[in-house]
Please model this.
Amino acid sequence: MERIPEFVANHVFLFSLLIAILTLLMWNLFGDILSGVKMISPAEVTRLINHEDAKVVDIRSEGDFNKGHIIDSINIHIDQLGEQLDKLKKFKDAGVVLVCHSGSLSPKEARKLMNEGYPKVYALKGGLLAWQNASLPLTKGKA
Model:
């Protein structure tokens, strides 16, 4: 233990990498909590759809949406989400679940919706990939 300061002094670059990796690991583990957006599992999404009439909004491109999407979801491309908030107003109190491909984009967009006054906004943790891994059904074509 007494040699740790000597190691740090001799290997500043390696120690800096260690700190960077630990920081990224902590961000990955606790970033969801810090963002204020509730990340939910596919099972929780199905519960919200069935019991609270939540609406699933797929923010992927129309082509990806047509290849496979969650049943009864609507497609609003991520670039058009701010312009098409009027489509979501009727679901404001029931809840809105945002879905992207891998779960990396939907939390950011969910945060924007929360800032617009939507109280019940969720993001599917792991995106559509998590939905497929849970062996839940997809439908193809336009909604």
